[in-house]
Amino acid sequence: MNETVNADPAELAKFSEQAHRWWDPDSEFGPLHHINPLRLNWIDSLAGLAGKRVVDVGCGGGILADSMARRGASVLGIDLAQKALRVAQLHALEAGTPNVEYRESSAEALAREQPESFDVVTCMEMLEHVPDRASVVDACARLVKPGGWVFFSTINRNPKSFLFAIVGAEYVLNLLPRGTHEYLKFIKPSELAGWCRAARLDVLQTQGMEYNPVTRRYWLSADTSVNYLAATRKA
């Protein structure tokens, strides 16, 4: 049976082209390295990663997946960008990271293969890069066990987020390559909450993520106007 894969070929090509720089903290992936301790600690504080089975949807080069495995989780990272997956696999081998593996798969395909198989599902900085965001949210809900946690992070859509996440981050501060994000693909918290409700996920907590370009410090806050995270749980 032929099936349309929920992915943008241009987005996959973009991240594949940059794949060899995933683990360079001074590259365009530097912001992911800087925010990773924040999101990792937040996820761990709510879900308790040790001993849990976790799938990281849209894992890229494995920055979050690797760190969750080091917290004691058994982690599967999935992505459709082949070069990024190879980088993740190579890093795991070189670093000797235990209990982490990587597969080329979409969230929808894995949800059909392994429904309700994971204690925790993470989908971070990925939703704004796919054509059908609601489909990914639904797949994440189908992957997690009843009572399990699903975590999302993405970017709000409003004039402030355009100014900060595109003009500021890509054109003024050069934190990200130009063209990394498209404003119309940004997601309002109300939209994400609606997709979660439709997938039978309860949104239990949201957090904003802020950045000070002078001190180069990131922190979590109550301000969800630009970058934000959502913790949801399956009933």
Automatic annotation (TrEMBL):
Coiled coil: none annotated. Pathway: Cofactor biosynthesis; ubiquinone biosynthesis. GO terms for biological process: methylation. It catalyses: a 3-(all-trans-polyprenyl)benzene-1,2-diol + S-adenosyl-L-methionine = a 2-methoxy-6-(all-trans-polyprenyl)phenol + S-adenosyl-L-homocysteine + H(+); a 3-demethylubiquinol + S-adenosyl-L-methionine = a ubiquinol + S-adenosyl-L-homocysteine + H(+). CDD domains: AdoMet_MTases. InterPro entries: SAM-dependent_MTases_sf, UbiG_MeTrfase. S-adenosyl-L-methionine binds at residues 39, 58, 79, 124. One of its GO terms (molecular function) is 3-demethylubiquinol 3-O-methyltransferase activity. Its EC number is 2.1.1.222, 2.1.1.64. SUPFAM superfamilies: S-adenosyl-L-methionine-dependent methyltransferases (SSF53335). The keyword S-adenosyl-L-methionine applies. The keyword Methyltransferase applies. It comes from the Bacteria. Keywords: Methyltransferase, S-adenosyl-L-methionine, Transferase, Ubiquinone biosynthesis. HAMAP family: UbiG. O-methyltransferase that catalyzes the 2 O-methylation steps in the ubiquinone biosynthetic pathway. NCBIfam families: UbiG. Belongs to the methyltransferase superfamily. UbiG/COQ3 family. This is Ubiquinone biosynthesis O-methyltransferase. The lineage of its organism: Bacteria, Pseudomonadati, Pseudomonadota, Betaproteobacteria, Burkholderiales.
